[in-house]
Amino acid sequence: MRLRIQRASSSVALACGISVLLAASSALFPGCTSDQVKKAAQAAQDISVSINLAIEVKRDLLGQKLITNQQAVVIDQILLELNSADREFAKGVDAFKAGKLGKAGLIKIFAGVNAAIQDLNNKGVLQITDPKAKAELSSITAGLAVAAGVVQAALGSS
After folding, report:
1. What are the extents of the domains in the chain?
2. What is the pTM assigned to this prediction?
3. Which CATH number applies to 2-155?
4. What is the pLDDT of residue 93?
């Protein structure tokens, strides 16, 4: 039980920490400066950390039978898509830094990350009926959404 409480606290702390950290960097210009690319890359890293936390929390919830096997499979599939999209975005940031990809290309790549975050919420978290399980996973998706917002602000996209 203590491990579950620590994980729930960790996911809430992660969401709050990301919110505070990224709210401080919300005054970004529409152009894509080196500093903004760094902030976008850090937000992509925050997304990666959140994905790993979501996997751990999902396993714990499944072990406690707070989510069904079917719900766990759906969440796993979406997290795999999100992880792949996040890795592609990280590669895109590297290509941008090297002058091989423009801002429009980064925005297009990031659309896949955003879509996967929305899928995780809509097709995964919102389908869970147990309130405790839903709350734990919702805090993680909230952190993902905040990180995604920072990337969008850095790229000047909506």
Report:
1. 2-155
2. 0.77
3. 1.20.1410
4. 86
